[in-house]
Amino acid sequence: MSERSSGALAQAVGPAPEPPPVSEAAASGPAPRPAAPLAPRARLLPALAAVYRAQLSRARVSRIPLLFVATFQSVGIMILMRGVVDGGSEARAVVAGSSVLVVAFVALNLLAQHFGQLRAGGGLDHYATLPVPPASVVLGAAAAYASFTLPGTLVTAVFGCLLFGLPMGGLWILAAVVPLAGAALAGLGAALGLLAPRQELATLAGQLGMSAALLLGVLPPERMPDVIVWARDLLPSTYGVEAFARTFAPHPDWAAVVLDLGVCGAVGVLSLAVATWAYRRAAVR
Amino acid sequence: MAADADSDVVCAVRDLVKTYPAVRGRRGAPALPETRATDGICLDVRRGEIFGLLGPNGAGKSTLVRQLTGLMRPDSGSVTLLGHDLVRHPERAARLLAYLGQESTALDELTVALAAETTGRLRGLDLRAARAERDAVLEELGLTAIAGRPLKKLSGGQRRLACVAAALVGQRPVLVLDEPTTGMDPVARRAVWAAVDRRRARHGATVLLVTHNVIEAETVLDRVAVIDQGRVIACDSPAGLKARVSGEVRLELVWRESAPLDLPEVARLAGDAVVSGRRWVMRLAPDEARAAVAAVTGGPAFAALDDFTLATPSLEDVYLALGGKTKGLVKS
């Protein structure tokens, strides 16, 4: 019985197990001894674009409710702070902090969860057995999560400006703040998700990171003790908050804005590099 | 094993060893001793064949496959795929083979079409080629009608089929498929095997298939390595393996309610039978089996008999005859 059934496949292919040429591999020569040529790698940018597009489509399906949560959370915090803060530099800090908090929620918290899940569920195997540069996977996912936060950040910032009577002329700076703070936080989130030994720890780390961004970013620094201010300086989102807050001033100190954004960008490069390294480490065990 | 066809060997595995360290017990998780998941495995997979790894769950099949696909570094031993040393260069595996793992986490939230297209792009195809291959593969596997639906909204079998589609986009000379047809209906299974055969016929693709399904192993595999507790306990064609236990046949009796043990002919058989509920399974020499059938069907025992089958040995019998210790092979 098995003779016949295993024969059925052989018949479909041909009587003898003669080696047909291995498609493109055969081009190298007739002898099968030399190593077969390798299929081309996926190049960095096209692969990044493919990951970005796939991640963005995921986001459309499942993350939009979470974006609403993130935005409402920030709006709620500003309404609460309205009773405490009257205006001036504190109001600027609250609006900027709440806006960047949306980025922290999505880029840090959700991305840490995503990579934690992917790692725990064996999903990294899928990417690891494709010839794709690790940076494409990490950057593509980070970029998708970060760009996904832009509408929420914008809504929060506009609402904050109306609430506290701040000028809206400088909101264009969000076009730089979101990607740079997004890169820094997304890299941090991805690294946490990939390095956490267990999925629950990845989720926990992401949420702690977001809580830190909330407490240290939204509350005005003038009233904080020194230790907390140092911790605040260590958090990459702080520089995004500071840069954004400065643009509300009547005559913004553009050099300081650029410096803050530069720090954000540098931390972004660093944290994405760490995330890429963490990905490599997680992919081959 | 394949000395005459040495030049035809696509994948050569020598003395592969991987040991998982002992795990300390934690709350809710029992302690595990050190485990040799692959214990000195040697294999030769020849060009153009469907080579199977058959064994129960936990036999070490997936650990072996993870080492063959560059996902895991062995402690010692060598893996040579199409002339490339995969222990030294695990990253080359992705450029030589397509891998279908057991998990679909990375694709679950994508639509069927986007999962196939993205995988093709990450396998190095440009956008146009990825889309053309995506359309062809979805058509081939009968997935066009559900191309726009996310994987996680599909049934288990359809989701698996979508993952197969993703694995087939972007041609590779070697396909490594870890239980590809789990949960699929017969139509989907046929579509998968037809698609695999087409790739063999057209491009001479070699297929390494992990399965714990005996029937599937007998029908689709050219050669099969039987894995038990991290070791290859036999490697041959399914027919060749079964010839080793050709001296035995399997007799299955199913009783209507309970076995009439008061009848002497039934009581005699009870000693040889493996009993599970109303079902008795016996491995007997052919003439013994004939006599047993005559005894239970000719006498008063027949009234208590619901069904009986007399079959030539399956790969499961081979596995047990070779000393396989774990139960858990699937027949469906």
Automatic annotation (TrEMBL), chain B:
* SMART domains xrefs: AAA
Cellular component, GO, one term: plasma membrane
Q: Which UniProt keywords apply?
A: Antibiotic resistance, ATP-binding, Nucleotide-binding, Transport
Q: Keyword ATP-binding on this protein?
A: yes
Superkingdom field? Bacteria
Any one of the GO BP annotations:
response to antibiotic
GO molecular-function terms, A-Z? ATP binding; ATP hydrolysis activity
Compartment list: Cell membrane
Identify this protein by name: ABC transporter ATP-binding protein
Protein species of origin: Streptomyces roseus
What is the organism lineage in this UniProt record? Answer: Bacteria, Bacillati, Actinomycetota, Actinomycetes, Kitasatosporales
